[in-house]
Amino acid sequence: MSSLLNRRHLFIQGSTAASLVVAPRLGQAMNAANDRVRVAFIGTGNQGMGLLKRVLQHDLAQVVAACDVNRGSYGYKKEEHFYGREPAAELVNQHYSKHHPDFEKCVAVNEHERVLERDDIDAVFIVVPDHSHRAITLEAADAGKHVYCEKPLSHSIAGGRSMVTAMQKSGRIGQTGSQERSNPVSAFVCNAVKDGLVGDLRRIVTKVGFNNKVGPGPGWDPMPVPDGFDYQRWLGSAPKLPFHQDRCLYRFRFHYDYSGGQITNFGAHCNDMAHWGMGLDQGAPETIECLDAKFLPEGSLFNTATETRFRATYANGVELICESGPESVQTRFEGTQGWIQTGYKGTTASDPSWLEGLPTKIDEAGMDPHSRHMANFIESIRGNATPQAPFETGHHSANLCHLANVVIKRFPEHGREKLMWDGSKGRFQNSESANQMLSI
User: Fold this and answer.
1) What contacts 90, CB < 8 A, 6 or more positions away?
2) What's the half-sphere exposure (Cβ side, CA atoms, 13 Å) at 386?
3) Which tens digit of pLDDT belongs to each residue from 71-97?
4) pTM attached to this predicted model
5) How far is residue 201's CA from residue 210's CA, in Å, rounded to a whole number?
6) Phi and psi at residue 295, in whole multiples of 5°?
7) For 23-153, where are the E strands, in sequence order?
8) CB 110 within 8 A of CB 44
9) Which of 43, 197, 250, 335 could disulfide-link to 48, CB 3.0 to 4.6 Å?
């Protein structure tokens, strides 16, 4: 039976993987001036620069603008990384001078409004801190741009719903930057689980990494805003708090005002795969409870939980446990016939034969999941594909993480309370005070 299931899901996955290998056609098409998809990057920090380099490497689109509130500085995920709008624009122009000397120069822009007002820009990659996703996406939709927005799609459940609605009204393509949806390995595992490989699914365990940065503790002192950094624009709608270098750049994810810690960072991947394997791309749990949470001392600059463990239960009887651990991303599916798990450190199963035919992350065109995911976005704009992670899917995956953070934030006071979620109404059934946290 397992052999039959294996052959069946390999056939399905083979078809899926083949539909994602688009780099050769894209590279050839980009040589035709009238077939270029013209894009801008809004956000050129750690993740933005990584995506930008892949767009150039695989010639996915023509980059005409690099927008960031930071002119250029060190101090991102690795101290030696020098990122910002000017380094990004310089990178693009150096690449085009060698490979496409007829292309116009990429410009460096501080204000995203200057990008969105340009009629010659087809699409934008929004790679800014989570708290700014909503505002820029709504403006981009109103300007008629196709939008690739990094995960987690939103900073709140209400914000995510407004983003989905805006893109639907615009009629443009929206892709969430959940690149595991374009990872052949993740697709192999999740499709196999949906196909019954582990039998009746009973339990899913997902792993999110521990905090990988340490901020200052209580009594920290504000710092002067660096030259070339538009801090007020970076803050956007967030509280107007004093500048500190550990509030911004890569470290924004450890502040609830701007992100949701590793629950929304890595959890947006592993919990998205949990929904995928359950066949619940637009699903939500019925109950959610925090089993454990640890926080830094009050007054520390970072305030997201440093370690967490929560449980969610679904109408199909599946229990999901998400917990901190040394693995950055891992999703384990357990059923009546065995288990299979996948993550950044590899894929294993209770029955090794289930892994026969397991694909690699890098395809024959040399594209990794990030590159393949962006290629899928560009091909969707051209009408040759559909998004692997449309906004609606990204919204529901982010929602699980947001629900988790509600119970995690309440854990010090309320302990292991179990909140009941009504997905049709978008509200908790048994806590009005928890409902007040849904838009924060």
Assistant:
1) none
2) 5
3) 999 999 999 999 999 999 999 999 999
4) 0.93
5) 27
6) -130, 160
7) 38-42, 62-67, 107-109, 123-126, 146-150
8) no
9) 43
